């Protein structure tokens, strides 16, 4: 129940959706990228551009990515289901239309100690890097924007984990693994996460304007610039 409540707080629900607009599997499909995805997200969010709409999608999907790292540290578990079973649906949050996610609760599995690095590589490549490429097929969005969107949520999660004495040691081990370039093989010759944090403690980065890119949330009606925005720092 504790895990379900944590997932719910990130708008990842383990109940059966009444319907779904699309799945993670469909996000990978070129026909969906070219013909529907951008217009669908722009329609849901009323974004002023497809780029802003895709950035918004990646910010919401980043909550799922953050929960992957949270569950790995806190429970030695990750979601490892079929991508057609991770479903996206429109919802309202604070009066703004956005998306939420639905996942089968049976799709989280235990991660053995000797496969921990392999599990992290899988998350980074299959669930992050591939989605970055997918969104770039939809519109000319910078990959840096998308990765920054992911890392904002991941930093928040590690700040919480490191603040818990019972989880701090394991969180530090996982954080150090994420900062090493080995888990980024096939994606980059360096740790993109370390490039974002510069090795600073997560608690020192929460709600600080450390991004190099703007997430364009200001271009979504009802939203303002986020607390990490470099434009706010320059203002």
Properties at a glance:
235 residues; alpha+beta; four-stranded mixed beta sheet; two-stranded antiparallel sheet; 6 strands; globular
Please, could you describe this protein's structure?
The chain is of the alpha+beta class. The protein has one domain (2-224). It contains ten helices and six strands. It has helices at 2-9, 24-27, 30-35, 37-45, 50-75, 116-138, 143-162, 168-179, 192-197, 230-234, and strands at residues 12-13, 22-23, 77-79, 87-93, 96-102, 108-110. The strands form two sheets. The chain has a four-stranded mixed β-sheet with strand order 1-5-4-2. A two-stranded antiparallel sheet has the order 3-6. A hairpin with a 2-residue loop joins strand 4 (87-93) and strand 5 (96-102). Helix 5 (50-75) runs antiparallel to helix 6 (116-138). The protein is globular.
């Amino acid at each position: 129940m504790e895990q379900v409540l944590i997932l719910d707080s990130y708008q990842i629900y383990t109940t059966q959706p009444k319907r779904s607009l699309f799945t993670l599997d469909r996000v990978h499909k070129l026909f969906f990228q070219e013909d529907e995805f951008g217009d669908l997200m722009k329609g849901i969010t009323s974004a002023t551009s497809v780029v802003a709409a895709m950035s918004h999608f990646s910010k919401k999907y980043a909550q799922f990515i953050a929960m992957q790292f949270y569950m790995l540290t806190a429970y030695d578990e990750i979601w490892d289901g079929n991508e057609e079973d991770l479903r996206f649906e429109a919802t309202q949050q604070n009066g703004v239309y956005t998306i939420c996610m639905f996942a089968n609760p049976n799709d989280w599995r235990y991660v053995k100690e000797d496969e921990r690095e392999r599990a992290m590589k899988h998350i980074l490549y299959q669930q992050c890097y591939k989605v970055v490429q997918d969104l770039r097929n939809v519109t000319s969005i910078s990959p840096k924007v998308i990765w920054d969107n992911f890392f904002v949520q991941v930093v928040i999660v590690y700040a919480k984990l490191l603040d818990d004495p019972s989880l701090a040691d394991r969180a530090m081990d996982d954080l150090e693994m994420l900062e090493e370039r080995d888990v980024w093989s096939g994606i980059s010759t360096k740790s993109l996460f370390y490039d974002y944090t510069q090795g600073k403690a997560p608690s020192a980065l929460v709600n600080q304007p450390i991004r190099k890119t703007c997430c364009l949330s200001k271009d979504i009606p009802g939203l303002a610039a986020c607390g990490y925005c470099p434009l706010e720092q320059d203002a």
